[in-house]
Amino acid sequence: MKTSLEIEFKTFITEEKYNELLKSLGQEDNILIQTNHYFDDELESIQNQKKVLRIRQKGNQYKLTKKSKSDEGNVENHIYLTESQALDMLKNGFDASIINEPITVHKIGELTTYRTKFPYKSGNVFLDKSLYNNKVDYELEYEAQDKEIGKKEFDEILKEYGIDFKQSYSKFKRAMGK
Q1: Residue 103 — pLDDT band, cuts 50, 70, 90?
Q2: Number of domains, the chain
């Protein structure tokens, strides 16, 4: 199992701003599709611990991730899956003890994102168009290695590209209608 720290800053943007940025930054042909499949049990044991459990699918690559909050960002534990493992887990659920959660989980939702990524200063900018529950939204996300520097650079991005900050919330919460 691999562990990483995710430090991210994000804002909702309009469809017009999303399309404007794609075009002005030359990212129109650099869009990848990924789907997050979310899991929990009937008692919402994962959610009640303020965690998220997902399988992210990019083409025929699959990664199981458990996300937990920390003071610095999100701690992510990852396990790479074969396609057959992932498809079985998506269909039948699975014993989450493989990622240190001693419960059996099943799929509870999904969200598909059309994403482009490009470097900016010490981090990466993501432009996302997300589809879930017959809804569509647009988001700019900035991932950094350091919380203070990342916040400063995120604010610079907003100013540089004329973006009004509009509080975004997690893709999981959006997919779950929360």
Answers
A1: very high
A2: 1
